[in-house]
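We modelled the chain as a single entity of 330 amino acids. Its sequence is:
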Amino acid sequence: MIEPCMTQPSVALIRCTDYSEPKVTEAIRRQFELLGGLEKFVSRGDSVLLKPNFIAPKSRCSAAVTDPMVLIAIAKLLIDFGGKPFIGDSPAWGNIFACVKRLRVEQELRKLNVPVKQLDKPKMCRISDDTVIGISSAALDADRIINVPKFKAHRQLMATFAVKNMFGCVSGKRKALLHFSKGKNEGDFCKILIDIYRFLNPVLTIIDGITAMEGNGPIRGMPKELGWLICGTEPIACEAVCAKLVSIEPEKLPIVRAATEMRFGCVEFEKIKIVGDDFPTEACTDFRPAEPLAIRFSLGHVCKSVCKQVWLVVIGFIFAKMRRQRGDGR
């Protein structure tokens, strides 16, 4: 258990104003260097899960998903170092292959020999004294995990930056069931999110805040140009820095309040060491928060979500079969 600010955590804050490959690659390389070098976090030959936020098959311009250029830049730096990156997620809607197809990065990932994996085949894991959850075996089998979330307003949690993205390692509709079973109490749900993060223990979190999502996130919000990449090893410190960038007091975030109760991480912004570019003297003040929505899903919502997912799988299977038949016909 990490005691609050027993050591001063560092967060690498780098200005990056667009998704051009040279800018993103240089920004991430600089973050690695500022935090002690890639060798501090990954060994040569390691299998490294890059865990994006691929909530649904959405385009890059939607700001609903981690931009693929961030993932590609990290993957290339890992490959150059001698690591073996792969990209994995368990989207709330559809699957990761549909997400990658929508983002039009299949060919580039294939050229880099970076596999894409659906985070399925769960293993039951005791993440705390009283909680057992099905975590994807692909996530569990990775030697290291780099968490690559999207900077978003969120209707149920105000805003999400570092911690919640690891919830995507819970396979399939088990996430919706946890919203139903644990969502009645905001604090209890956030504590589970923190327990999942601690259990999986990503070596780094790199938050895509170049273009963020404001308004009714996590999927129906609007893009907001921020121009930041935020990187750190301590997720609550990252949460606090991200909150301050858009003029939100960290203690207003349910996840930060839960971390304070659990005595996990550094919640005090003044004790966080900012490395890289200077923290802006004037933070963004016009970031639009989300309209609040209950965390708990109704039983009807869960059933509808499961049925929709099954239908999408069936339709995907039918179209794949049709494509194979057309190919055989040629």
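As a brief sanity check on the tokenised model: The first strand starts at residue 10 and ends at 15. The chain has ten helices and twelve strands.
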